[in-house]
Amino acid sequence: MLGLLKKIPVISMGTELISGYNKSKSYHYLWFGSLNDADKQPIRWRVLSKKGNDAFYQDSSGNSCENPLFLLTEDVLGSFPQKEEIKRNVCIKFYNTDPDENWDLENPASIWQGSDARKWCRHFEQVCFTETERSSILSTFKSDREYRSKRDAYNPALPPIKAAPNILNGDKVFFLSFEEAENNEYGFKDKKIYTAEQEWWTRSFDRYTEYGDFHCLEIGIVLTHFGGLLCAPVGSKMYTRPALNLNHSQVLFASAAVDGKEQGLPQNPAVLKKVPKMPEKKVKDWKLTLIEEKRKGFSVGKPRIQGNILFVPFQNAVAYEPSLAPNERVSAIVLDSGGTDLKYYGNIALPVSPNGEAQIDLSSIALETGDRLFVFSEQCNRNRRTDYASRPVEVDLNQ
Asked: pLDDT, tens digit, for every residue of 308-352?
């Protein structure tokens, strides 16, 4: 009963409030990236795990990272031929042409690595994410072990899926393996979890078969209508559900995907609003505010107080421009002494030029001992779309 009544803030530092799959609470979802179709609709992802997919991870600078958010698209996606728009409910071929002479059956990893499916994943990465979103996606390195699918439980004559050493070799976007697609810890326990009647590719090489003069390479698919897994010829058209690992250290905030962060034209002086709380069971969909490299020069000058008004000069903000950059703001937050409890948030200035001065009405906030005020440059992109920010700069209220 207490769990049903628990409330959580709709904005939090980092990804602490985002959960991986939980048997009793099911999934949390993350809106990240957008399709490159005409409508540029945001993409919804399931958070399968907050510990990655048992692999090794590197960021764009080559540094190792731990415990990424392991994500899988909620919708089935695809495009065919290769360079067309990424859309929902469109199929692709694992191989567009017959590469028979290039098949290395003794190296199962090479089947995925040489596939058009992998090229599709790279195309998806390039066209469906911004530069900053791409920089937050980790390179994944993983070997797939030999695996006997649950579908084989009553047919032991079927051979197991062969091991595929180093199958993911720096991949940023990829398909699940057979084993990952049957992992109970990711929520794949029965057919109800899958998207009904929409089969999607895995990356696992299943078998090579010969029917007279016809040779067929088969790859694992998720057979969603009946549950479980099957295999299909590489020239078949199936849907995709790409996966990726997200670097949580590049996330400044996570906020409720709808109406979590209020965007508006700042008053003069600006009012910071207390971060509201909602029942935990109602906050399942999140969006991110990512730290953006191009904003690292943002800084603040010496503040001053006149009555209840705090004046904060700022430098090197990304400038607001009505037609080209309408979502640029200078924003502020109030954190507790430990820097984890986000109490207040608000847009405090419209930066019509990189340098300016924000005004904050201090009567709008109830500061407690140890509370800290931070200011930052921010692009606010509304519901379900990624926001971007500089690292927050602390304002010394004791000067």
From this structure: 999 999 999 999 999 999 999 999 999 998 888 999 999 999 999
Of 159, 154, 150, the closest CA to residue 178 belongs to 150
Q: What's the whole-number mean pLDDT along residues 201-226?
A: 79
Tokens representing 351 are 């930066």
Count of other CB atoms within 10 angstroms of residue 233: 14
Angstrom distance (rounded) from CA 236 to CA 354: 53
With H, G, I as helix, E, B as strand and everything else as coil, classify residue 43.
Answer: strand
Start-to-end Cα distance in the chain = 47
Taking alpha carbons only, the member of 62, 75, 79, 161 closest to residue 117 is: 79
Write the DSSP assignment of 312-359 as a string of letters: EEEESPPPPBTTTBTTEEEEEEEE-TTS--EEEEEEEE--SSSSEEEE
Closest C-alpha to 78, from 90, 70, 69, 68: 90
Please give the Cα distance from 331 to 390 (Å, whole number): 10
**R_g (Cα) of the chain, nearest Å:** 24
What is d(CA 249, CA 288) in angstroms, rounded to the nearest whole number?
12
In DSSP terms, which residues pair with 361 in a beta bridge?
309
Q: Residue 185: count other Cβ atoms within 10 Å of its Cβ.
A: 14
319: amino acid identity, one letter: A
Altogether, the residues listed in the chain come to a count of 399
- Cβ–Cβ under 8 Å, residues 344 and 227: no
How far apart are alpha carbons 339 and 123 in whole angstroms?
39
The Cα–Cα gap between 191 and 151 comes to: 12
In whole angstroms, what separates CA 235 from the centre of its chain? 30
Region 113-129: mean pLDDT is: 95
Other residues' Cβ atoms within 10 Å of the Cβ of residue 287: 24
Which amino acid makes up residue 352? V
List pLDDT tens digits, range 60-116.
999 999 999 999 999 999 886 656 789 898 899 999 876 665 678 889 999 999 999
pLDDT exceeds cutoff 60 at 152: no
DSSP output for 376-393: EEEE---TTS-EEEPPPE
